[in-house]
Amino acid sequence: MLHLRAVCPQEKTASALGILRAHAGTAHLVVHRGAAVEPAGDLVEADIAREAADEIIDALCALDLDHTGGITLEALDTALSDAADRAEEAAPGEAADAVVWEELVARTGEESRLNVTFLAFLTIACLLAAVGVLTNSAVTIVGAMVVGPEFGPLAALAVGLVLRRWDLVRRAAAALGIGFPLAMVVTLGGALLVRATDVFGADAFRLERNHDVDFVFSVGVPSLVVAMLAGAAGMLAMTSAKSAALVGVFISVTTVPAAGYAVVAAVAGEWSRCLQSVGQLLVNLLGIVAAAAIVLIVRRNGQRSAVGTRPLSRG
After folding, report:
1. How far is residue 149's CA from residue 249's CA, in Å, rounded to a whole number?
2. Residue 154 pLDDT more than 80?
3. 246 contacts 306 by C-beta, under 8 angstroms
4. What pairing do the DSSP bridges indicate for beta strands 2-8 and 70-75?
5. CA distance 74 to 249
6. Among 223, 238, 265, 213, which Cα is nearest to 154's?
7. Which residue among 1, 164, 258, 290 has its CA within the 20 to 30 Å range from the CA of 143?
């Protein structure tokens, strides 16, 4: 269940109540007359089935409440109520399969912002990847995968392309287009410092000896398959609120490690490996976005089909 709060101008409260009353997925409808101060109006609250959320929000936005008032949603961990049980049973489908599109847009939009935190995580991840390459440590490479924050902008790219939200596309492209080069430049400085001080030993830059991390730069069909599977799993996790599954997505793709490997290979003068690593990075980025977009298209079409058979009235 989700808890819905809507600030309504008084002249629109009756219409908002009508929408909520008419939908079988609504429970615990409450109205606080004149409770809203800024913007002024009434406060309407209800618990709604996740499967019903997208349709209800669309109807409330059609009243222009997102501009003249406000609409917020929050997840409910527990709802002990027969009315809530009836609402969930009346809404067709399963909560885990329901996509709340406005929630998805808001979430991916927030995670795709180019800010200091994003740049710091991406830079640290690239530095970890470079250390993993220099020390021939697959464990450190996996650590870099987990730290990397790049899936947020990649998911935002897919959402923006499918929903034609070009503001999301621009924001995500900026985060990736600025973030990766900046992180790689910082990593380049670190790699040059390591080489100058010889802190990791004389053989650290002999990459032909580091067979445990060869998977980072070995680009090919398997790389594309893994990237697409990861992109599909990641988007499924985001659209079904199964956020724990995202950790598996981070570990399965070699975006950040490929960037770190490319830098180390360039410092070592291994230009073939450097170019292969850049290719690995591009293949993974494109594969993730493509698969995520396909998942969104399939889920969007499926949800539209379900709306045609959804009972809107309580009878």
Report:
1. 11
2. yes
3. no
4. antiparallel
5. 25
6. 238
7. 290
Q: Which amino acid is at 233?
A: A
Mean pLDDT of 161-170: 92
- The whole-angstrom separation of Cα 84 and Cα 90 is 10
Cα dihedral 143, 149, 155, 156 in deg (nearest 10): 180
Query: C-alpha distances in angstroms, 243 versus 108, 128, 170, 222?
Result: 13, 24, 25, 25
Cβ contact 136:210 at 8 Å: yes
Q: Report the run of H or E that residue 35 belongs to, with start and end.
A: strand 26-37
Residue 308, judged by CB atoms within 10 A of its CB (0-12, 13-18, 19+), counts as exposed
Q: Is the dihedral of CA 202, 208, 209, 214 positive or negative?
A: positive
Q: Of 41, 46, 42, which Cα lies nearest the Cα of 2? A: 46
Is the alpha carbon torsion for 120, 121, 123, 127 positive or negative? positive
Give alpha helix (H) positions in the chain: 10-22, 50-62, 65-68, 82-90, 101-111, 116-134, 138-147, 151-163, 166-197, 221-239, 246-252, 255-268, 271-307
Average pLDDT score, the chain: 86
State the amino acid at position 267 in one-letter form.
Answer: V
pLDDT in tens, 244-267: 555 556 666 778 999 999 999 999
Token pair belonging to 81: 């109520």
Return all residues near 282 (Cβ < 8 A) that are at least 6 apart: none
Which residue blocks in 135-212 are alpha helix, DSSP H?
A: 138-147, 151-163, 166-197
Tens-place pLDDT, residues 23-39:
888 999 999 999 999 89
How sure is the predictor about 312, in pLDDT bands with cuts at 50, 70 and 90? very low
Helix, strand, or coil (residue 4) = strand
